[in-house]
Amino acid sequence: MKKHNLLYVILLGMAVSNCGDKKKGENSIFTFDSTQYLAQYQPQDKLNLGVLNPNSKEIDSIIYFVNDTKVGVTKGNTKLPLALIEQKLGYQNLKALVYFEGENSEATTRVELVSNVTPKLLKYKIINTYPHDINSFTEGLEFYKDTLYESTGLNGKSYLRKYDYKTGKVFQQIDLDSKYFGEGITILNDKIYQLTWQNKTGFIYNAKTMKLEKTFTYDKDIEGWGMTNDGTNIYQTDKTEKIWKMDPATQKMIDYVNVYAGNAKIKSINELEWIEGKIYTNVWMKDAIAVVNPANGAVEGILDLSGLRKFLNVTPDDVLNGIAYNPKTKTIFITGKNWDKMFEITVSE
Question: Can you say how many angstroms the Cα of residue 189 is from the centroid of all Cα atoms in its chain?
Fold first, then answer.
């Protein structure tokens, strides 16, 4: 088996690819001239936009949109070349607003833009093994000023705690109301941000005192999964292939990327960690971590951590879910839901 095929065996158990799924607009006057369109394109490709005019209408002009953003105007029915390099990975929803004979009409279709990056298989080395509370349904894990913080899930069992990772000694713990299912956390500018799963509610705490300072409501109709930050913005997941970018001052979503490994989108990305300019994310129900370029969502590396299971006293349902980078030691800490151990590792190609 080729190396890149092995990577996809590791990762693509959680990937969904919709090859050949082209959505065509229902329009009795004009349709996109998509006879030469492929189901999938890569960022270096170009696309010629144009419409079919079966009724021989006299077309004055056409305005073209990609994902509701205007990309160009043509006179008559001339083709508009579209470079895909600036577009997000994922579906490109194409729209042509056709002006003809004093009227206008729309035509729509879509194509999928996939990654042109072949992920590298990464390897790891275990540096240390530490105890982990087997009753902790881990959702978020993050270092802040050399102290480890953890958020857990399950209604009635969700908490936020900071503790000594070497001994497991708890310094402070905040228990969530039983109506909340705790999810990911991140810490930025002495504030702890915590998500909940399906409550569409987040919390902001003072990182020094762990006192709750604010409760906020998601501005998108999404679930709360994982969180991380790059020192300026916060990133979070919602069970899909999306990584959202949030403004920490307003808690509003300002952008997103779709995560793709090669030609397949990766759904159910969960816990996040920002490590030296990349986002490390584990995927729900998989003992693997994808290393994602936050600028475009392309998976650049895959870390197969299934070998950790031989050191654990857990069930297959106790999945990997916890990634914390310690900038002081430049090592990564890995654990999972109800795992009895936490591993300190280094990663290399």
Answer: 23
Q: Which two tokens stand for residue 104?
A: 């206008």
Q: How far apart, in whole angstroms, are the C-alpha atoms of residue 212 and residue 230?
A: 23
Q: Which pLDDT belongs to residue 138?
A: 96
Same domain, 181 and 65: no
Q: Tokens 């129900």, residue?
A: 285
Same domain for 163 and 106: no
* Integer Cα distance of 271 and 267 in angstroms: 13
Query: Is residue 105 domain-shared with residue 127, that is, in the same domain?
Result: no
Taking the model in full, what pTM does it have? Answer: 0.88
pLDDT of residue 349: 85
- pLDDT band at residue 26, thresholds of 50, 70 and 90? very low
* In a shared domain, residues 162 and 42: no
Of 123, 124, 121, 126, whose CA–CA distance to 10 is shortest? 121
Specify whether 333 is located in the same domain as 187: yes
Q: Is residue 4 part of a domain?
A: no
125 or 39, greater pLDDT: 125
**CATH code at position 28:** 2.60.40.10
Radius of gyration (Cα) for the chain, nearest Å?
23
More confident residue, 125 or 10: 125
Quick one: average pLDDT of 317-345? 95
48 CB burial (10 A radius; 0-12, 13-18, 19+):
exposed
Residue 124 sits in a domain whose CATH number is 2.130.10.10
Structure-block tokens of residue 4: 């890149």
**Residue of 115, 158, 126, 155 whose CA lies nearest to 300:** 115
Write down the pLDDT at residue 146.
Answer: 86
265 shares its domain with 152: yes
Q: Which tens digits make up the pLDDT trace of 294-310?
A: 999 999 999 999 999 99
Domain of 252 in residue numbering reads as 120-348
Cβ 234 vs Cβ 186: under 8 Å = yes
Q: How many CB atoms lie within 10 A of CB 62?
A: 25
Amino acid 347 reads V
* Single-letter residue type at 164: D
